Amino acid sequence: MSDSEDQTPRRYIQPPPSMAARAPPGPGAENQTATEGLGVSSILRRWKREDIMRKGGLALRGLASLFSLLAFIITASNEHGGGEDFHKYEEYRYLLAIAILSSLYTGIQAVRHVHQIFTGNRYLQQRTSALIDFCGDQVMAYLLISAASAAIPRTDNVRDDADDAFTDSSAAAIALAFLAFCSLALSAVISGYRLSTRSYI
Predict the structure, then answer these.
(1) CA 149 – CA 56 distance, rounded (Å)
(2) Residue 142, exposed/middle/buried by CB under 10 A (0-12, 13-18, 19+)?
């Protein structure tokens, strides 16, 4: 090979723009894509969790409303004449009053949340609504368990004298009030979690 050939300038071939565009991204781009994917998936999981909690709270209030209404109906119709009338016992009158109050509270709450889910309209601010849910569920759950606890000893005393339809109806009303308490207690747990984590936003 001659010296003239060695001195010939070399030409470097540049890749066409199409090939440069198809070049694989560097490791930084892959990390950014993975981070964005994780961020989107975490947001989707949070929305799904909030939707489950919202619908779960609605279902629990619906059950509490049903149990309270049944307890009210059974207690109000528990009249068999003589000494077997519910209004002659203070504990059963208290149970009836709390069952009515619980039916109204849970019914109104259930209707409000159904309207909010299907229309997206809110009657109150989000934090105010969350506080009402949390406090209301706790207060009503306490009243239900106190009414059921007060009626249990009275039912046992009456059952010592006569075990009949009156005591059976009283026991059924107490059991329904306890089920309503359990539903509202679980609803209060969900309300407290949403309030503490600001999941209502």
Answers:
(1) 27
(2) middle
Distance, CA of 105 to CA of 68 (rounded, Å)? 10
Helix (H, G, I), strand (E, B) or coil at 79: strand
- pLDDT tens sequence across 103-119: 999 999 988 888 887 78
Contact 71, 99 (CB under 8 A): yes
The identity of residue 129, as a single letter, is S
pLDDT of 47-103, one tens digit each? 676 777 778 888 999 999 999 999 999 999 988 877 778 888 899 999 999 999 999
Closest by CA position to 183, among listed 56, 81, 75: 56
Q: How many other CB atoms are found less than 10 A from the CB of residue 21? A: 8
Assess contact for 186 and 136: CB atoms under 8 A: no
> What's the number of CA atoms in the CB half-sphere (13 Å) around residue 97?
12
Q: Which two tokens stand for residue 6?
A: 């060695």
- Which two tokens mark 157? 């005393």
The one-character DSSP state at 88 is G
Angle among Cα 168, 106, 145 to the nearest 5 degrees reads 45
